[in-house]
Structure formats: structure tokens, C-alpha cells
Amino acid sequence: MKPQAVIFDLDGVITDTAHLHFVAWRTVAAEAGIVIDEHFNDGLKGISRMASLERILRHGGKEAEFDQAAREAVAARKNAIYVEALSQLTPESVLPGIPALLAELKAQGVKIGLASVSLNAPAILRALGLQTHFDFCADAGKLRRSKPDPEIFLAACAGLNVTPAQCIGVEDAQAGIEAINASGMLSVGIGKGLRQADLLLESTVELTWSRLQHFWNQQQREHAPSH
Ligand code: BG6
Ligand code: MG
User: Fold this and answer.
1) pLDDT tens across 146-171, in order?
2) 27, 60, 95, 124: which one has the fewest Cβ atoms less than 10 Å from its Cβ?
3) Residue 222: which residues within 8 A CB-CB, separation 6 or more?
4) Do residues 204 and 12 touch, judged by C-beta distance below 8 A?
């Protein structure tokens, strides 16, 4: 038994861009007189650009000072800083274990999907040299609801022509685990302190095909109808 597809989040699963997001947000937050730290930034993982800005303004008690046009200007400035930092990314920036897992999934005939809410996802995949490795990448630009809503994972399943019950989703953010669970897929969490992941691994080093296959078989046995 094996899953039909494995659907990956990008930031924090395929490559580690959280610190680059943090540095860019910290810069524009400071310009608005708001201080954020890495701990606060953890809560922004998996959250879309505009929703992240909203959280930062709320954190600084400055929501009333920024109308829609001002918010869009701040978000655009943050993105310009972030995109500039993305030029550091190379194929070496792919997290350990991921290239081997992608190769093994392909060899096994298991489809590979991407479910990232980042509008920069296509550019990041190109910088990492992974643009041809995914069978389908859900389009963040078409999303109506961001994670923890399951919309992006369901869009990835539809694009891959698979049912959620036949898939595994991989995430490093709490909002992402909630989105996977709500989609009806099995969830694999990467990192510490994630709640409700069906399988929690400390890092992508542990994210191997044999680990996923063992997990899949165990889950199918546990949920098989008893006679
Ligand atoms: C997610 C990140 O993958 O993408 C978030 O975890 C980020 O931190 C979100 O805000 C949106 O990214 P972008 O590149 O569209 O600003
Ligand atoms: Mg992530």
C-alpha cells in the first residue's frame, strides 16, 4: 500500500525561508514603530502576506493608522526586501533529505504536489532548481481562503487528480497542519511543538520514503473497517 500523492508546503519544508521573511517583516515593522521578535514570527508561518501584516499591526496596536492603501504599500515594501534576499537561494538551500525523497517518490510513481500560500513560490522553486519536480503546484494567487482553511490542499489534490484520503500532506506550520487535517489528508509535521499532526518529525532528515510508507501502512491498518 502506498499513498497516491504527497503534497508539500514550501517555506520551512522544502527550504528554510522563515528567517528571510522575519528580517523583511522586522524592517518594515520597525519603520512603523513596531517591534517583533523571532517568537512572534513563528506565529506568521503559513500565514499569507496581508494576513501577516494585519497580525503585526494588531500586535503594535496600529491597525487604525493604516488604511488599505497604506497596508498595500507596506506589504509591497516587505516583499521587495524579501525578494532581494531570495537571491541568496541556490540548489544547496534545499533542506536535507528532500532531494532524496522527491527522487524516491518519483521512482515509486507517487505524485508530488505543492501547496504553498506564497506568491513567490514559482520563483523560489526556480532558484532551488526544483521547478520540474512537482506534478502540480496549487496557485496561491487564486486562493480565497488562506491556511488553516483546507482550500489550497484541496486545490492541489484536484490538480493532481487524487482524493485527499489517498494523500499525505507535509507542513511546518500549525495553520498548515490544521489545513491538512481539515482537507481529510494525513498530516506530517516537521519541527517541534506542532499540535494535531498525525506524524511529527523533528526535521526533514527524518522525512524519508521508508518512514512515510511505514506511517501510511500503519494508518491504513488502524482505520481499516473491522469485520
Ligand atoms: C508562507 C510563509 O509560506 O508564505 C509565510 O510561511 C508567508 O510566512 C506566506 O507570509 C506568503 O508569502 P509571500 O511570499 O507571498 O509573501
Ligand atoms: Mg511553511
Assistant:
1) 899 999 999 999 999 999 999 999 99
2) 27
3) none
4) no
**Contact criterion met (CB below 8 Å) for 173 and 9:** yes
Handedness of CA 125, 128, 129, 130 (dihedral sign): negative
Q: Which atom of ligand 1 is nearest to the CA of 173?
A: 6
Q: Which amino acid is at 88?
A: Q
Mutation pick for ligand 1 pocket among 19, 28, 38, 49 (CB with most ligand atoms within 8 Å): 49
Q: What is the mean pLDDT of the chain?
A: 96
Buried b (16+ CB within 10 A) or exposed e, 30-40: eeeebebeeeb
| Cell matching residue 1 | 500500500
The span from the CA of 156 to the CA of 136, in Å, is 7
Confidence of residue 180 (pLDDT cuts 50, 70, 90): very high
- Integer-rounded Cα radius of gyration of the chain: 18
Our CA angle for 176, 177, 182, nearest 5°, is 95
Q: Which residues are catalytic?
A: 9, 11
pTM of this structure: 0.95
Q: Which ligand is nearest to the CA of 204?
A: 2
Measured on CA atoms in the order 67, 146, 188, 10, is the torsion positive or negative?
Answer: negative
225 SS3 class? coil
